[in-house]
Every structure is written in C-alpha cells, then in structure tokens.
Amino acid sequence: MTTFTPDIEASLAQQSIELPSWAFGNSGTRFKVFATPGTPRDPYEKIADAGQVHKHTGLAPSVALHIPWDLVDSFADLRKHAEDHGVRLGTINSNTFQDDDYKFGALTHEDDRIRRKAVDHHLACIDVMDATGSRDLKIWLAEGSNYPGQNDLRARQDRLADSLRTIYDRLGDDQRLVLEYKFFEPAFYHTDVPDWGTSYVQVAALGDKAMVCLDTGHHAPGTNIEFIVMQLLRLGKLGSFDFNSRFYADDDLIVGAADPFQLFRILDQVIRGGGLNNPDVAFMLDQCHNLEAKIPGQIRSVLNVQEMTARALLVDRPALAAAQSANDVLGANAVLMDAFYTDVRPALAAWRESRGLPADPMAAYAASGYQQQIEADRVGGTQAGWGA
Ligand code: PSV
Ligand code: MN
C-alpha cells in the first residue's frame, strides 16, 4: 500500500473545500426539476445537511450562500446555527440573473437606474458578509448579447469597470471580490466576462482585494485549464475555484467524475504554483445533484478532490524537474503518470481513521440514519431549489 510522508499528511490535514448551499436544494434542467425526499426547505436545513458532509469527511468546514436564495431574517442567527452544526458561513454569491430588470444587463446596463440597482444588490451582499463574517463576494454575471451588433461591446466593458469600482470601494479591509468568467450562457453571442483574461483585466484595475474565480465548467471543450491555473497563480490573481465537471456544457456534475485526469492536472499545477492550502486560493464546489442524492453527492465530491490532491502530492518533483531539464520527454511524462495511476484510496482510508474520521465516509453517512431521518421529518413546506 502507498504510504504518505509526514509532509503529505500535513497538507491533507489542512485541506478545506467550501460547499455550495444550492447543492442541497432540488435542481434540474430546463426540462424538469425532480423533487427528492428530504430536500431542505430553507437555508437552515441546507446548513444542517452541509454539516453532515463535514462531519463524515473533515473536509468541508464552510458553506457558500447565494443571495437572495438564502435570505433569512437574521444572518447572525444563521451564523450561530452554522456553528452549532460544526461549519461556518463562507462566500456570498450575488445574483443578478433572475430579475426582469436585468434582461439586457445588470452591472453593464445602459440605464443608470438598473445599473445602480445591480450595484446596490452587491452592496447589500457586502452587508450580509459583515453579518456572516464572510470574506469573499463572488460575482458571476449573466450578461451579454445574443446577436452581433446588438450591443456596443466596448461601452459595456467600460460600464462594468465603473460598477465594479463602486462595489470594490465598499469592501472591508479583510474582504475580497472574486470575479467569475464564463464563455457562454445564458447569452450566446457574447458575454461581458467570457474568459480569464477579461476577468484578470477587470480585477487587476481594481486592486489587491480583487481576484479571479475559475469555474472548471466555464471553458470551451478542449481548453487547457491547468495552464490558466498556472498563469493566474503566477500573476497572484487566482482567488478561488468553483469545482465541478462536465461532459458537454456547464453541466455542474460531480467534480472529478467526468475527467479525473483533468482534475489531477489542475491540482498538480495548484501545488506547483503554491496554491494548495494557500488562504488566497479558496477551493469551492459549484455543483447541482439533479438525479443522485445530494448529501452523498457532496461527500463524493470532496473525496474526489482529496483523492486527486493526494495523487498530485505524490508527484516526485525533483525527478520531474530533472527529466524536464534534460528534455527527457517520456521520462517527465512517466513521473507525472506514475503519480496519477497510484491508487491512494487505501492510504487515505487508513489516514482518516488515524484522525478519528470514518475510513469510508460514504458508508458512514449511509449507516448514520440521517437520510432516513430527514426524509421522515421534512414533509410539508416548499422544498428549496436552485433559484429559490
Ligand atoms: C454560473 O453558471 C455559476 O457558475 C455561478 O457561479 C453561479 O453563481 C452558479 O453557477 C449558480 O449555480
Ligand atoms: Mn460557478
């Protein structure tokens, strides 16, 4: 069995992955959202479910909220509730994609009234961050256009810079803004923040507290995402990951499910660039569980990230550097592939047990009775969903 060095064990012990509150609600496609027994009916129940993921894995100590989906009367109370469930409230996600006013844009809108409304929403999100103790405001913008000529691309970019400046200036000393990019959807001709370069240009103009968020599902097929990871780390601007996986578009499937090798390559570059367990680089999931049970789906997800992290930590870096310097093409590739093909699951199970965690978190959750309990208890009311 592979064993871990004390350094690797220390790295594994530090790892944390933030969960999205919306992963616990019902979700689906534009064709159908299927209800699932036991689905939370409010943010409190979502947080309780997230606590289960952390309890069985030790990997997920915080939960991201989406505003207005997770609005509550008292965020101080929700914060206390999270602490009672062994987790804390994390990144606050703004939402300017579900209001009729934003049909033609939000932070880029031509109409000052609408643009001001979108900016004010972000300022309100920062008020929430003050109450929850959250560090990061994550901004993903659904804006763009569907037809060539529909909009003045340049003017929209200028208005975006202006809006972001107002939001940035409201951040506290310990707060940050992370700007997520996405190359299409819901707009199909252009989006206003389509790629890492545009996000970088916008956040670099703002200052040190603004960083790029990289959602692994937001690239064209075939994009070398680990190259982008390398570049953003090199520039000191990789603020966070939204991890998920995809076969076709922005599928939001379980991270590492569609392409474990890609996840390994990304984590290899994270480690190479000093981004692992670096407080500047937040690891988050951005997923939906349309068919599978949600809590086990989240447990599987954080375990996938942990597993590929462990494999990437096994890369023999001196041997890799020597082979690269010698232009030993096949030798260098073999060093990387040796680590990728190492089955770390038995070593991780033993390591978990040594830390008082279940060797098999999926089995431990299944045996805990929690799922049966929530299915029995959570009857009546309206189930939470993506977008509600
Ligand atoms: C947009 O596709 C996105 O990746 C953003 O992060 C949103 O906040 C999230 O999905 C909503 O599911
Ligand atoms: Mn995302």
From TrEMBL:
SUPFAM superfamilies: Xylose isomerase-like. Residues 75-226 form the Xylose isomerase-like TIM barrel domain. GO terms for molecular function: L-rhamnose isomerase activity. Pfam families: AP_endonuc_2. Keywords: Carbohydrate metabolism, Isomerase, Manganese, Metal-binding. It comes from the Bacteria. Its EC number is 5.3.1.14. It is an enzyme of class 5 (isomerase). InterPro entries: L-rhamnose_isomerase, Rhamnose_iso-rel, Xyl_isomerase-like_sf, Xyl_isomerase-like_TIM-brl. NCBIfam families: RhaI_grampos. This is L-rhamnose isomerase. It comes from Microbacterium candidum.
